[in-house]
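pasting Thiamine-monophosphate kinase for the record, 331 residues
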Amino acid sequence: MAFAEFDLIDTYFSQRMEQRDDVELGIGDDGAVVTVDAGNQLVVVTDTMVAGVHFDQDTPARAIGHKVVAVNLSDLAAMGAEPTWISLALTLPSIDQDWLQGFTHGLREICEYYGCQLIGGDTTQGPLAVTVTAHGVLPHGSAIKRTGAKPGDWLYVTGTLGDAGLALAARQRRQQVSDAHYRRITDRLYFPSPRVALGQSLRGVASSAIDVSDGLLADLRHILKGSRVGAKISLDELPLSLALTETLTQDQALAYALTSGDDYELCFTVPESQRGVFDTLVAHTASKPVCIGRITNEAEALQLTLQGEPWQLPETNTGYEHFASPIEPSV
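structre below
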């Protein structure tokens, strides 16, 4: 069956998404109309995934649909926002109905899970690329920024770090991983879980936050620069999965955890005055954030210690940087 652009939109996007009460007009007109409650502010984030850069031809379409939403929701989570609406710009080399079925399945699953709605976008022909703009709301003045960390604040991370990086290395045959570990870390790579609920609960508690997308060290440096502070990290406290510790040497595992991208966990700071509130807040959570260090007054200085002694990365890589090197296929 030949598909025109509007046939594609009607078949795969218009009728398949749950409807939010605050969407007055969604897909099908020149623009969407939504309602933002009085007293709330709107947070807007955008992320693009390009074939051959962020994913390869073997990446399942469902994973691409999931991940392009997840990476945006992770940004919203870092600011404490509640996800509400997304718009999608999809560039396709041709109409592949099997691919579109998988892609929309992944996109629909994550949107429904987090309660956000696809309200519009654009489709065009060209090299495969996917861009999502996500919107979220939060009470006026409650956004968690990168610029609020103060000396003495405690530094936390969620989840385990480095799993997605190890999965990519295994897929590219740079590391050998057992089948059981490979299945788990590949799920972490393909289907990240943004920390949306925790992000909202950190409003008024965390002094700063960022999502870990380009590697812990690279992303933490944004907080240090924005807040004009330093940090001291105890690597003994860094949360590592069994996949890392049973596959790699200690130095290799730490390097993956510190520099690998695609974790989509949260890194945030909590003042001493809020630590009791925070401990109560996470007391009954299944996976508690881990305190890995403390903020110092040495602007942008980052100290790493292992068993109380200074530790340095065994290699120069400190995280993913766009445009830092020629394009190589990655996820």
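Residues 323-331 have pLDDT under 50 and may be disordered.
The chain has two domains: 5-139, 154-310.
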